[in-house]
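Hi W.,

Here's what went into the run:
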Amino acid sequence: MSARLEKLLLQALVEKPATIAGPASGDKAAQELAKTLQDAARRLLGRALSIREVDAGSCNGCELEIHALNNPVYDLERFGLKFVASPRHADVLLVTGPVTANMKTALERTYHATPEPKWVVALGDCACTGGLFKGSYACIGAVENVVPVDLHIPGCPPRPVEILSGLVALIEAASRSGGARR
Amino acid sequence: MAKRVASTKLWPRAEIGKAAWVECAEALGRGEGELFALFAEVDRVHMALRGAGDEATRIVTMKVEDGRYPSVGVHHAPAIRLERAIRDLFGHEPQALPDERCWLDHGKWTITMPLAEKRRLAREVLDTGYAFLPAEGEGLHEIPVGPVHAGIIEPGHFRFTANGEIVVRLEERLGYVHKGIERLMAGAPLEQAAKLIGRLSGDSTVAYAYAFARAAEAALGVSVPARATYLRALMAELERVANHLGDFGAICNDASFAMMHAHCGMLREEVLQAADLAFGHRLMRDGVVPGGVAMNLKPEGEARLRALVATIARHFPELVTIYDDTPSLQDRMVTTGIVTAELARRFAPGGYVGRACGRAFDARRDLAYPPYDELQFDVPLLQEGDVNARVWIRIREIEQSLALIAQILDRLPGGAIKASLVSAAEEREAAAVVEGFRGDIFVWLKLAADGTVARCHPRDPSWFQWPLLEAAVEGNIVADFPLCNKSFNCSYSGHDL
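Here's what came out:
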């Protein structure tokens, strides 16, 4: 191991964490949010929700902010939420984009490949309403035109903190309905 | 006989006949000059060229006759996908084009030939299959991947033919995120069109809005206040740094070096938060508008941006040293996914893809647009063409961009940030190029007399990079494809339109 790498790893032991002072420490509201999420998730599925992201025509802006959830600053996994590679492993489909005609079939197949119970989140203005692409010959529009949607998180793109609190809201709603929505 | 019909300093356009058009295509095929863009209107096709030797840029135009024009792709392969796209959108038939398959049209749209004057239903598009190019030999197997990928990335389909672990052929099928942007832009007021183009490729929202604004201003003969040009460049460099940092980490992550991904992710987050504070949006979306910029640099923004430059300058060199000192990383990066200089010469790929294999082009320097004509920066160039070279180009460009951000802040002029735009009461047109993080973005814009958009064609750098990815991955192991792909980081949405 190079001396530099060693130094950097050692630094990580003594320096304060990069993770934002929000959910992990300090900020009261965010702390509450983290707790709610933990309780609700535990009631629902033990302690975790697996998310499969589906880009159904996004400009990639939403994906950039979804990526940010995985960085050490937001550290999504501390809430028991994680992204998985296959819809067959997923509880939640996180869908972006104004559902292009060319992606409609793929979205439907991904939905059907996801086992029950499952929830669908429409992320970003395009997924929520079709956004600026509403009415295009090449777009179906809002995600709910193609598959049932449980939660809308608007924004162009929504900030990582907004995405996070949206996912918390989903878990709360899902646990109130007692698990499987359909 | 060429008839000069429109003249902007950098992109004069001439109407030429069929024979001259074929001559241009043949010259491209011989390696004389570069194809910059190929696009259509309802009755014409246009080719944007960068000349050999003098490196002058120009556009040539040919009237489409009976719905046909001589194929450029038959002489010059980089034009093939562009011609397939034109056929899907306009119905113009590229004569003698060897590839008859649709490209953007998957047979799912509500109409066919959505940009044609009269939408015809002439060509039947079958959804039942897409004939991938065959590969023959003993022990070959196919691996279909996508359009929904395992990671959080854009959708597209990759068809690998492999012999054991070795990729024999990769063929891409794109178009999944085609949103019909060009049609939505037609007839739209400038402000609306600027918003649409800012949503063509989310990672390049500044660069696209920047290129579109410059085209609109050139068409209307508007000069932009000096402060606005500097603020645009500031946003563009922040966008470049954020994307390069993200890519650097993600490429290392694809070689199972997650630590780099985490550190780069933190630095990228610093950039986005600083951009948010300075301009009110993490990606600075809708920040650049025709005439100038939409928002001024907030007072606390300047200090934050200077602190950002210092933070990255402090941490980044350490990461670079680790990258260079870690044998497991070097083992994966060096000599992987090579793009040859010969292919780079033919395809003229922009950005780090081209600059990693000897194509010394950067629109900021070579088509010097303000304020870059007043700023000092180097354009890094390497010859190796492998994943490692594409990483190093990004590393050097991050350093250059940080220096540019500091220069811009030092020299930032005062004054207005937006000029008012008055429609010209006649048809106007212009082209503009802006260097996005991925490469040069070309925008051709024609405005109607009432100031609305008559036709706009944005050409993403990915058009000339995607085909090279197919070549680069050949002979590599399947497991190195993510690495090669990430080192290209082509846009799906920008390409699919």
